[in-house]
Design goal:
Length: 135
C-alpha cells in the first residue's frame, strides 16, 4: 500500500522548485504525513519513524529515475486535530542516498547514530501533546 493510500488526507506530496539568489534552481520532492499521538512518547516516535521510512521507500521507488542532484524532504508532523499550528516530529532533507538510509534504519536512534543527525527527532517535537506525562 502506498503512502497516499495508507495515510489518505493526512498525506501530501509536492515537487518544489526553489530558486536561489545566484540563479540556481533546486528541485525537491517533498512528502509529508500528519499523525496523531500513540499511547506515549516512545510509541509515537516509533510510529512516526515507521511513517518516515514508508515515505523514504516510496520516494526512492517512485522517483528513482530523477537526476542525482534533485533533493528529497520527508516531514512527519502533528495533525491539525492534535496541534492547531501542527509542528514537525521529523523533518529530513537529503538526496536519494539519504532516503535509502532512512528506509533501511529500523529506528530513529539508529538513523541519528549512523548519520550524526542531531535534529532527529526535532527539538520540542512533543510540545503541548503529552502534557499529562512526566518528562
Amino acid at each position: 500500500m502506498t503512502p497516499p493510500e495508507k495515510y489518505g488526507d493526512e498525506f501530501c506530496y509536492d515537487r518544489l522548485v526553489i530558486r536561489q539568489a545566484d540563479g540556481r534552481t533546486i528541485i525537491c520532492h517533498q512528502a509529508c504525513v500528519c499523525i496523531k499521538p500513540s499511547q506515549d512518547k516512545e510509541a509515537t516516535l516509533a510510529f512516526a519513524w515507521q511513517v518516515a521510512r514508508d515515505l523514504a521507500h516510496w520516494l526512492i521507488t517512485t522517483y528513482d529515475a530523477v537526476p542525482d542532484d534533485e533533493r528529497f524532504q520527508i516531514i512527519v508532523a502533528w495533525s491539525k486535530s492534535v496541534r492547531k499550528h501542527q509542528g514537525h516530529i521529523f523533518k529530513i532533507w537529503g538526496f536519494k542516498e539519504s532516503m535509502r538510509i532512512i528506509a533501511s534504519c529500523e529506528s530513529y536512534r539508529e538513523y541519528a547514530s549512523s548519520t550524526g543527525n542531531w535534529q532527529v527527532p526535532m527539538l520540542n517535537w512533543e510540545k503541548d501533546v503529552f502534557a499529562s506525562e512526566m518528562t
